[in-house]
Amino acid sequence: MSTYFISDLHLDEKRPDITRAFFDFLHGRAAGAEALYILGDFFEAWIGDDDDAPLVEEVIRELSHYSASGVELYLMHGNRDFLLGSDFAQRAGATLLEDPTALSVGGERMLLMHGDSLCTLDKEYMAFRRQARDPNWQRQLLSKSLQERRAIAAQIRMASKSMNSRKAEDIMDVTQEEVERVMLEHNVHRLIHGHTHRPARHALTFNGEAAERIVLGDWDKNAWCLKANKGSLELLHWPID
Ligand code: MN
Q1: How far is the CA of 208 from the centre of ligand 1 (A)?
Q2: Stretch 197-208: mean pLDDT, rounded?
Q3: pTM
């Protein structure tokens, strides 16, 4: 049986083609899998588990059928959907994972992350990340009405778009220093993350041994996944039409 890793689908009412491609993935390639790990930015935005948008209900319905079929389903927060909570996870039949999480798949240890915390040169974003992960800040935000939260989410998205267009390309990527620090801390030779939208397999030498950083792709023109099966790993993509 295979285990799959995906991230950065950025599910959004404006992109029904991506939602459809994801449901096709659950019914097709990923049907009957051992486990599915969704490593953040599953949704383009998340304003709270009480969101009654049709897309949310549709996704919960598909995920709950999928997990009920016997597939272990895991969810990690991204920088867009950091407010995903235990209500959503419970309704979807998923387990929320800490970022980072180290685990063994097919006897091989790996570290799973969303990847935003690896982009340490982006000081402005790192400051926002600290604020956004603060329980008090989250509680205050969640106490606002759905309408107010929708407006705030739209503002954050617009601010982040104009901010990112001003930022140099390289500060949006991971820093090697932080990659090595976190791999050493968790004593792993393989790191899997998303976030940067730069899908690739990077061979590293780490403590004199071969190591690897695998970057998952975002779902846009193509869908991406990492497939783990009997100790082999494949980074796969196919067109979204
Ligand atoms: Mn992200």
Answers
A1: 31
A2: 92
A3: 0.95
